[in-house]
């Protein structure tokens, strides 16, 4: 499909980058389908990242993602999933291309400013995790 899901993570929220990140997303041609500020409990963060349960950084990731408010959003554009991953850059900001959101705003591989879905299937699952059908325009 033509949708992806993103979160502006607690590090970027605390560092005051939310406005600049949303500006870059919109100027890159993504339309906002749904958007909210919210805070994940540890339980909800654990559920969202359940696919990473076996990874060594899972505990750290769940703790970090529940450490402060986030912005969750569903975005629409042709080729949304792939184009958004190009816009955010590599997971590790030190390896991210110049001009990408992670290069500009991320702190470290763990505290990396934004999430972007890795497939159309996960984009739908992740968007529905945060938003009901009635909230998606
Ligand atoms: P995302 O799914 O958030 O868009 P990604 O697909 O670039 O990120 P994944 O490998 O799926 O990266 O990891 C998910 C998240 O787990 C990363 O965004 C990062 O916050 C965290 N993470 C990944 N690798 C590490 C690591 N080595 N140490 C700490 N945290 C990590």
Give an overview of the whole structure.
- The chain is an alpha+beta fold.
- It has one domain: Nucleoside diphosphate kinase-like domain (Alpha-Beta Plaits, 2-Layer Sandwich), CATH 3.30.70.141.
- The chain is built from seven helices and four strands.
- The chain has helices at 10-14, 18-27, 42-48, 58-65, 80-88, 101-105, 120-130; strands at residues 3-8, 31-38, 70-76, 114-116.
- Helix 3 crosses helix 4.
- The relative contact order is 0.26.
Secondary-structure blueprint:
Elements: E1 3-8, H1 10-14, H2 18-27, E2 31-38, H3 42-48, H4 58-65, E3 70-76, H5 80-88, H6 101-105, E4 114-116, H7 120-130
Antiparallel strand pairs: 1-3, 1-4, 2-3
The chain binds adenosine-5'-triphosphate.
Cofactor: Mg(2+)
Function: Major role in the synthesis of nucleoside triphosphates other than ATP. The ATP gamma phosphate is transferred to the NDP beta phosphate via a ping-pong mechanism, using a phosphorylated active-site intermediate.
Subunit structure: Homotetramer.
């Amino acid at each position: 499909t033509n949708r992806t899901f993103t979160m502006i993570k607690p590090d970027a929220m605390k560092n005051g980058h939310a406005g600049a990140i949303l500006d870059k997303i919109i100027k890159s041609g993504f339309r906002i389908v749904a958007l909210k500020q919210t805070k994940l409990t540890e339980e909800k963060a654990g559920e969202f990242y359940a696919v990473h349960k076996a990874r060594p950084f899972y505990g750290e990731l769940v703790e970090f993602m529940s450490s402060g408010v986030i912005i969750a959003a569903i975005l629409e554009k042709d080729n949304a999933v792939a184009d958004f991953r190009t816009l955010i850059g590599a997971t590790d900001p030190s390896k991210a291309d110049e001009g990408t959101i992670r290069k500009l705003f991320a702190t470290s591989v763990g505290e990396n400013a934004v999430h972007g879905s890795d497939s159309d299937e996960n984009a739908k699952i992740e968007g529905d995790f945060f938003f009901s059908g009635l909230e998606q325009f």
